[in-house]
Amino acid sequence: MMAQKRWNCFVFFLLHIKHVVWTQRFQIVSPSSTVLVHAGEDVILPASLSPAINAQGFEVRWFRDSFNSPALLYQDFQIVPEHQIHSYKGRTTLFPEELLNGNISLSLQDVRVSDGGLYRCFVDSGLWHEEADITLNVEVLGGQPSISIGSTEDQQTRLECKVDKWGTTPDVTWRDMNGVDVTSESSVTEERDNEGLLRVSSVIPIKQEFNVFSCLMRSKVPRPDWHSGLTIYIFSPGVPGWSVVFWLSLLLYVAVAALLMFQWRRMRGACRPC
Ligand SMILES: *[C@@H]1O[C@H](CO)[C@@H](O)[C@H](O)[C@H]1NC(C)=O
């Protein structure tokens, strides 16, 4: 009789444990495995538990390459700043009131180019743990290019088309006054600034004669926010730009006047009786 009771108790206990483990079982779900953001903006890496159980007592760890130096660690009902990657200090948080509904989304402020890449979200309830991946893509809208004139040591005049803060190497195209692609005569250099963004410079040697150059820089990969920048430079050796415009208009004016005069003479000639 006693043994029977013990056995019942044991079965009940087993069922209870199974019930606990079963109810604590969860998955991590995310509406998107890739999130796109522009540098400088804030972003939420969305993730929540399914079923939507209370995660306030769980460990929530958002990390990148190293499990032990996370971008954010929530443990024992609080965010733990120790071992956090230095560059994420003060920029990451969870939504504490949302944890109640199993919402473990990570908020990341003032996104930098270096934040781009894979994020892992690890959640541990003590009895069950799960992990999920989200990729953050950081897009950069680069500045507008500008052209400046200079000369090399051997007195060769050259134009430099420069742009700052591009995320990827742009395609550079130079054209002259006649629309001819002269890019092959140019050379490109690039360097990274301290934010990890590119400073691109394309240099083209030019002849000492009037010409108009355009420099077009654009993203290599067509994307939804396909980006480009165009700038134009009028080169007129020895004379300032306004006087070129003045002389060109005067020339045009003289040409038109001469043409009219010629036409008028011809008409008069035609009307003169023989
Ligand atoms: C989680 O919380 C954040 C912040 O309140 C919210 O923007 C997001 O939509 C929530 N996600 C879910 C799945 O409820």
From TrEMBL:
SUPFAM superfamilies: Immunoglobulin. One of its GO terms (biological process) is T cell receptor signaling pathway. Coiled coil: none annotated. GO terms for cellular component: external side of plasma membrane. The chain crosses the membrane at residues 241-262. One of its GO terms (molecular function) is signaling receptor binding. Residues 1-23 form the signal peptide. It holds the Pfam family C2-set_3. Its main location: membrane. It is found in: Membrane. Keywords: Immunoglobulin domain, Membrane, Signal, Transmembrane, Transmembrane helix. Residues 24-135, 145-215 form the Ig-like domain. Gene3D superfamilies: Immunoglobulins (2.60.40.10). This is Ig-like domain-containing protein. It comes from Erpetoichthys calabaricus (Rope fish). The lineage of its organism: Eukaryota, Metazoa, Chordata, Craniata, Vertebrata.
